[in-house]
TrEMBL record:
Coiled coil: none
Enzyme Commission number, as recorded: 5.6.2.4
Organism listed in the record: Thalassobius vesicularis
Molecular function as annotated in GO: 3'-5' DNA helicase activity; ATP binding; DNA binding; four-way junction helicase activity; hydrolase activity; metal ion binding
Protein name: DNA helicase RecQ
Lineage, broadest ranks: Bacteria, Pseudomonadati, Pseudomonadota, Alphaproteobacteria, Rhodobacterales
Length: 533
């Protein structure tokens, strides 16, 4: 047995390395600069903890969350490894104990909160104690536009230069831009040895559903999994509270979690979730990085996540123990509008915005996928050989039809109104509804007026959503979200390309009773008279 395997078994109690761990451990132990990209739950911590024990001196670990550091230090100590943390959460006694172990040369791993790096004294201290390796956990926090940016992470590059020791960076964020930013900021642009471990999480079942009655959809999903630990992600704080309440009323143990809560309350919920079996946490994205619960059995999205990366991270919290786990992601046109608006109203520079739109598009493409979701998801991360059989589309392949004709109708309505309108007005044109606005604009004379009566309003909304999913149309932020065509739509409009649509999401679009659409409030007495007959 190699020394690494002996430690794996004797100290960590594992029989074998997981996929990819072995190679990373070897490279880090050999003192190379390493960037390891491994999925959530892939076992990244071991990839710096084990080499720390193989090398002389102290390994400094930089990690973004105090809770994460504490958990790891506790687990290491229980395994008999000398580890300590210097964070603002320490008691003076804890800090003294860390210093003592350091001065006595016993300490193998020293966890440091990134904000400590800006304290001038830290560098001098780290110089003295014989640091032999810097490990950076959640290295994507160095990415300025990422969702977890930590300004203090920007000091890590400086630290590496000052100490002149190897650096190993770990993240689950696969996307190429973030990776390039990590290399730039942590390694001064000198490419480290990079390991990219497969992103497939075959035990996680993937499913999406069009949002029609979201509260009921989430309640039934939870009811079918009663007694199992789960997370429901919501787009707003208010919704987390309302939905947690609804779940409790349905007899579940559920609580809410969001960034607006007191730190103590948040910590309380985190601990409860960690310890209790079968608790449901209804949360915003604030709930996540610090959660290391291996047996989360399901994750549901009551609202569409903001990007394909966010989706992958969030569902990835389920089933870390490798046992089957379920997911459900709801999406509707309002989600798409909201996410677009958030990107456009954000502070990011224009080039960043278009990247964010592209990531959202990738997620919409996944939501409206015609074939296997796992293959679609992993293709985005650059993997081509994907075996699935564990997603809703593999369970029951959707019925597909040639949607070229309705898509061309919609595109032509967009073009003939010069890309100045949203889907509501465009659908009125397609349905031939003589609204005031149609009359005022003279749109009842357009050749597309009334050509789409084969479908009703909801069905047209489903078609527009699928068109967005295929990135044929996009809301234009400079025109209050009016729909514009993309390059991808031109061959279809010219009759040079064909487009498949899913029949189910169009057919099952909840219809409003037809009569209701025809009457206004003034007709209500007439309607009830008709009904009474
Ligand atoms: P990551 O940081 O990549 O999300 P962690 O380091 O938190 O993953 O590890 C996830 C879980 O996998 C932990 O419970 C850890 O103890 C376990 N684990 C790590 N390596 C192994 C292994 N070789 N064999 C079995 N379990 C492992
Ligand atoms: Mg981790």
């Amino acid at each position: 047995m190699s020394p690494a395997q002996t430690i794996l078994k004797d100290v960590f109690g594992f029989d074998a390395f997981r996929d990819g761990q072995d190679d990373v451990v070897q490279a880090v132990a050999a003192g190379q600069n390493v960037l390891a990209i491994m999925p959530t739950g892939g076992g990244k911590s071991l990839c710096f903890q084990l080499p720390a024990l193989l090398r002389d001196g102290v390994t400094v670990v930089i990690s973004p969350l105090i809770a994460l550091m504490r958990d790891q230090v506790r687990a290491l100590r229980e395994a008999g490894v000398e580890a300590g943390a210097l964070t603002s959460g320490n008691t003076p006694e804890e800090t003294d104990a860390v210093w003592e172990a350091l001065e006595a040369g016993r300490l193998k791993l020293l966890y440091i909160a990134p904000e400590r790096l800006s304290a001038g004294s830290s560098l001098g201290m780290l110089r003295r104690i014989g640091v032999n390796l810097i490990a950076v956990d959640e290295a994507h926090c160095v990415s300025q536009w990422g969702h977890d940016f930590r300004p203090d992470y920007l000091r890590i590059g400086e630290l590496r230069r000052a100490l002149n020791v190897p650096l190993a960076a770990f993240t689950a964020t696969a996307d190429a831009e973030t990776r390039a930013e990590i290399v730039e900021r942590l390694f001064d642009g000198q490419p480290p040895q990079t390991f990219l471990r497969g992103f497939d999480r075959p035990n996680i079942h993937l499913a999406f559903a069009a949002k029609n009655n979201p509260r009921q959809q989430i309640l039934s999903f939870a009811a079918a999994r009663k007694g199992q630990s789960g997370i429901v992600y919501c787009g707003t704080r208010a919704k987390t509270e309302a939905l947690a309440q609804a779940l409790r009323e349905a007899g579940h143990a559920a609580c809410h979690y969001h960034g607006g809560m007191e730190a103590d309350d948040r910590r309380h919920t985190e601990t409860r979730f960690q310890r209790e079996d079968g608790l449901i946490v209804v949360a915003t994205v604030a709930f996540g990085m610090g959660i290391d619960k291996p047996d989360i059995r399901w994750v549901a999205h009551a609202d569409l996540p903001k990007s394909i990366e966010a989706y992958y991270q969030e569902i990835g919290r389920a089933g870390r123990d490798g046992a089957p786990a379920e997911t459900l992601t709801l999406f509707g046109p309002d989600d798409i509008r909201l996410r677009r608006a958030q990107i456009d109203e954000g502070l990011a520079p224009p080039e960043r915005r278009s990247a964010d739109h592209a990531r959202l598009n990738a997620l919409l493409g996944l939501a409206e996928a015609l074939h296997c979701r796992r293959a679609t998801l992993l293709r985005y991360f650059g993997e081509t050989e994907v075996k699935c059989g564990n997603c809703d589309l593999c369970d029951s392949p959707p019925e597909i039809f040639d949607g070229t004709q309705p898509v061309r109708m919609a595109l032509s309505a967009i073009l003939r109104t010069e890309e100045w309108y949203g889907s509501g007005h465009l659908i009125d044109i397609l349905l031939g509804n003589l609204t005031d606005r149609i009359r005022e604009k003279g749109h009842d004379t357009l050749p597309t007026f009334g050509v789409g009566r084969e479908y009703d309003k909801r069905q047209w909304q489903a078609i527009f959503r699928q068109m967005m999913g295929h990135d044929l149309i996009r809301p234009n932020p400079d025109r209050h979200g009016a729909l514009q065509m993309t390059e991808a739509a031109r061959p279809i409009l010219r009759g040079e390309a064909q487009i498949d649509l899913r029949r189910d999401t169009i057919r099952d679009a909840p219809r409003r009773p037809a009569v209701k659409a025809l009457v206004s409030d003034e007709d209500a007495p007439l309607l009830s008279a008709l009904k009474a007959k």
